[in-house]
């Protein structure tokens, strides 16, 4: 009798358990993909999205890990007579189910966008009052990712609103990644670890390395603004839920050095890697940056620790990120307008990450091989005995990035 009861209990909870597992699997490492917003804003349609799907495959981006194809604001048409949202028939004549099938057939996943308020930021229908219905509609279409924005939410409680859509997505039965886009206004890192898979930490990025763009009612962040904001939030990131400093601007007009620095820092910070350029038509330089597998491996490292800025000295910032196999990633960022000479003595970098991982570099105890992840060259060892200190230039708005391979 008792045995039967236990078996019954086990069977009853198995689906819930397996489902929760499935949900957590979605963000074991930061999400990677492409989104329409940075390049196209509202000017999107089926042809563009299909073209991007094809380009993700043909350019090798999918195989490098970029699997989410996310349609941002302005795909929406009207709600039907039962309240179910429909895509704009002019822009997406074949509909979202067709598009999801197209995308899935190419080994990709489809992302969509909505908003917790009455309207999206671009004035399209929001999900307020339609949360369960919208989640069901996305699940029926075969959507895999939802970016959920925060415009037009007067008198709405943020935690309640994001919990509601999270519950609605789970109830709809299909594992859908929840990318919270609340701009960090209500410190979601303090309350959203069980609600969303990632949360935005600040305002929208724009294509600038270091100037904040100020409008009367809002600001847009530069690459450096995003890095500086994210720096203090590393203890909140972990497998399952990531700080999101916003989508990448690589390939949208920054210099090659700046693109390299931007990409490197998103990898060091375990940030979502969501491309925002027109990948149907990109330079070889952009492609080489965004497909750097050694950097992507740093971003996707299973230890899931957001890197830390250990030291800022004479214009250079020294960042470290512990990795699952005992290696460390290390980046030297020059955010100044001048090239800077750098001299490294590894013994100055003995430290323990007491805040998150408890890992120590222990350069006084262990030797690491120094692998330059951009030039792909080995650059000696960190050992105490190797007296020869290397000096080199870190160019303005650029980085030097190493993988320190533990011996
Ligand atoms: C907000 C978001 C952006 C983008 C736009 C769309 O500004 O933060 O990332 O989704 O809305 O309108």
TrEMBL record:
Coiled-coil stretches noted in the UniProt entry, renumbered to this chain: none
Entry keywords, A to Z: Disulfide bond, Glycosidase, Hydrolase, Signal
Matching SUPFAM superfamilies: (Trans)glycosidases, Glycosyl hydrolase domain
Family to which this protein belongs: Belongs to the glycosyl hydrolase 27 family.
Record protein name field: Alpha-galactosidase
Alpha galactosidase C-terminal domain boundaries: 315-404
Enzyme Commission designation: 3.2.1.22
CDD domains: GH27 (cd14792)
Gene source species: Hoylesella buccalis
Molecular function terms, GO-annotated: alpha-galactosidase activity
One GO process term, biological-process aspect: carbohydrate catabolic process
Reactions mediated catalytically: Hydrolysis of terminal, non-reducing alpha-D-galactose residues in alpha-D-galactosides, including galactose oligosaccharides, galactomannans and galactolipids
């Amino acid at each position: 009798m008792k045995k039967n009861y236990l078996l019954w209990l086990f069977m009853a909870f198995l689906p819930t358990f397996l489902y929760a597992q499935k949900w957590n699997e979605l963000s074991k490492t930061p999400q990677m993909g492409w989104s329409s917003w940075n390049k196209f804003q509202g000017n999107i349609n089926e042809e563009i999205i299909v073209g991007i799907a094809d380009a993700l495959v043909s350019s090798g981006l999918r195989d490098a890990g970029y699997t989410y194809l996310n349609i941002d604001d302005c795909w929406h048409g009207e709600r039907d007579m039962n309240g179910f949202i429909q895509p704009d028939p002019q822009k997406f004549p074949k509909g979202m189910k067709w598009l999801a099938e197209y995308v899935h057939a190419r080994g990709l996943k489809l992302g969509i966008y909505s908003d917790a308020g009455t309207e999206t930021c671009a004035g399209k229908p929001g999900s307020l009052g339609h949360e369960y219905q919208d989640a069901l509609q996305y699940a029926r279409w075969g959507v895999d990712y939802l970016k959920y924005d925060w415009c037009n939410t007067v008198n709405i409680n943020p935690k309640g609103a994001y919990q509601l859509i999270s519950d609605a997505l789970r109830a709809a039965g299909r594992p859908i990644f929840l990318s919270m886009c609340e701009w960090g206004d209500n410190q979601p890192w303090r309350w959203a670890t069980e609600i969303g898979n990632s949360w935005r930490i600040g305002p929208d990025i724009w294509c600038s390395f270091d100037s904040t763009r100020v409008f009367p009612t809002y600001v847009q962040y530069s690459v450096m603004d995003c890095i500086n904001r994210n720096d203090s939030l590393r203890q909140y990131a972990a497998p399952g839920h990531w700080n999101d400093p916003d989508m990448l601007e690589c390939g949208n007009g920054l210099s090659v050095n700046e693109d390299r620095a931007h990409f490197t820092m998103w990898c060091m910070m375990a940030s979502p890697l969501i491309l925002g350029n027109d990948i149907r038509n990109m330079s070889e330089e952009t492609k080489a940056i965004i497909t750097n597998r050694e950097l992507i491996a740093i971003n996707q490292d299973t230890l899931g620790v957001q890197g830390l800025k250990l030291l800022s000295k004479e214009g250079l910032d020294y960042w470290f990120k512990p990795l699952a196999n005992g290696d460390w990633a290390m980046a030297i960022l020059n955010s100044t307008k001048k090239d800077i000479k750098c001299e490294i003595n590894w013994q100055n970098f003995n430290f323990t990450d007491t805040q998150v991982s408890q890992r120590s570099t222990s350069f006084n105890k262990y030797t690491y091989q120094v692998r330059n992840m951009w030039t792909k060259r080995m650059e000696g060892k960190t050992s105490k005995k190797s007296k020869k200190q290397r000096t080199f230039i870190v160019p303005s708005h650029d980085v030097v990035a190493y993988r320190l391979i533990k011996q």
